[in-house]
Write a structure and sequence with these properties.
Helix content is about 35%, strand content about 15%. The chain is an alpha/beta fold and about 350 residues long. The chain folds into 2 domains: about 10-150, 3-Layer(aba) Sandwich (Rossmann fold); about 165-335, Glycogen Phosphorylase B (Rossmann fold).
Length: about 350
């Protein structure tokens, strides 16, 4: 049984999560519970520069800080620790499982440090529990709070993403000028791992299917993912709207809030779409939707039944889970998903 930490109501709390976009959004249920438990506290969040835009307008936190020590060695860790020490935190809650983050908080002389304890991490913490790899990331973060703090934790808290007003305005202008016009559907053929990507041919078939159903497909992605989206567009019978690399992260979130459905691999945009209330058809291969799918939201996973499924490998010699996933199965899920109306923000 983990020990519980008591702090004053107006304490200074530092939350640390240097995860990628999708994983960071899976931490937002925990963020919500921390603020509910400590409404009078000063609560800051330390994130990586790449992920900052998705939480920059989160009203839970007093300040969003950017970390500059990740994967930069001992000197960078000590420098970050010195900066955090000067801010005088009473409690640090570390969702980031890297040993370097936990060491940084210990070097910062933060008296109370909550974090995951498996793999020797208990050395750096004053309270914590092991990370349970078979459970969802969001559940693990809520469980960490539940076992270490004297506050009520709601395990049904959904993910959240605050939309930026300027981004909403920009996207509304962008959509107003698109031809053909909406209603729109999103297609994201990208993912951080090659093994998590379904085939371009499959996504092209999805795009043509959406056109036949009266929806205008919009391809999305970051600038370096444009070749993948361009390939999908070249295989389609109807020309899609290709906004790959044309939106900032806040604008992408706003765009996802305006579409009817997103068809996507396991990726950051999958979680962004869920967090803004948009329906998602999620194609899974080497990862487990019960561990890393959207949290406490209705979504529509598509995954083959193979002996090697959910292997979590970033390389594969055959990639059957993606190459052999049928277009028909995905289209059936898409058809079921778009068969009822959706209320937009």
């Amino acid at each position: 049984m983990a020990s519980r930490i008591n702090i004053k109501p107006d304490a200074r709390i530092l939350v640390v999560d240097l995860a990628f976009i999708g994983d960071l959004l899976m931490s937002t249920p925990a963020f919500t519970n921390i603020r509910k438990g400590y409404p009078d506290a000063v609560i800051d969040l330390l994130v990586s520069p790449a992920s900052r835009p998705v939480v920059e307008h989160n009203k839970i936190f007093d300040e969003i800080l950017t970390a500059h020590y990740k994967r930069k060695g001992w000197t960078a860790v000590k420098k970050e620790a010195s900066t955090m020490a000067e801010r005088g935190y009473d409690l640090a809650i570390c969702f980031h499982r890297a040993h370097g983050s936990l060491l940084m908080l210990m070097l910062a002389r933060i008296r109370n440090r909550i974090g995951f304890t498996h793999g020797g991490r208990w050395i750096f913490t004053t309270a914590g529990v092991p990370f349970q790899i078979s459970r969802h990331r969001a559940w693990n973060h809520l469980n960490l709070l539940d076992k270490t703090l004297p506050i009520e934790i709601d395990f049904n808290t959904p993910m959240s993403l605050e939309l930026e007003p300027d981004a909403i305005h920009a996207v509304e202008g962008m959509l107003a000028n698109l031809l053909p016009s909406g209603p729109w559907a999103g297609i994201n053929p990208n993912a951080s791992w090659h093994t998590k990507r379904w085939t371009p041919e499959g996504y092209a078939a999805v795009g043509d299917f959406l056109v036949d159903r009266g929806l205008t497909p919009i391809l999305i992605g970051s600038p370096n993912e444009k070749p993948v989206c361009d390939h999908v567009a070249s295989l389609m019978k109807s020309k899609p709207v290709n906004l790959t690399g044309e939106t900032t992260l806040p604008e992408l979130a706003a765009l996802l809030s305006k579409i009817e459905v997103l068809v996507t691999n396991d990726s950051g945009p999958m979680h962004m779409a869920q967090a803004v209330g948009t329906r998602v058809v999620s194609i899974f291969g080497p990862t487990d939707p019960l561990r890393c799918g959207p949290w406490q939201n209705i979504f529509n996973p598509v995954q083959m039944n193979l002996d090697c499924i959910k292997c979590y490998r970033k390389s594969c010699t055959h990639l059957k889970c993606m190459c052999e996933l049928s277009v028909e199965e995905v289209l059936e899920t898409v058809a079921n998903c778009i068969s009822f109306p959706q209320n937009h923000h």
